Prior knowledge:
Residues 1-98 bind DNA. By secondary structure, this protein is of the alpha+beta class. It has helices spanning 27-37, 46-54, 63-76; strands spanning 2-4, 7-10, 15-18, 21-23, 43-44, 86-89, 93-96. Helix content is 32%, strand content 23%.
Amino acid sequence: xxxxxxxxLDPASRRAxxxxxxxxxxxxxxxxxxxxxxxxxxVVTRDELMRExxxxxxxxxxxxxxxxxxxVRRKLGDDTxxxxxxxxVRGQGLRFETEPRSSVKA
Length: 106
């Protein structure tokens, strides 16, 4: 079980919770959250995500990650304009924050 902030992920059963509520994630959404939360506090590059989540060594579309990330943020209730769970680090990648921040800059 991996727990960061109030998000819990069980890689063995492929289940996720936010607080006490179970979140239904698709296979790719779960893989994306797992790739980020397992390295919480560290920036994960888009290239790493494409390799790990989509098993792609080339960019099929830069929008693939953005679309899935949007779905994940909505399901987790993370504000897309002021995210406190998954933040974008411009020019570097994405980071699952280890603690809530009220003013994380994208």
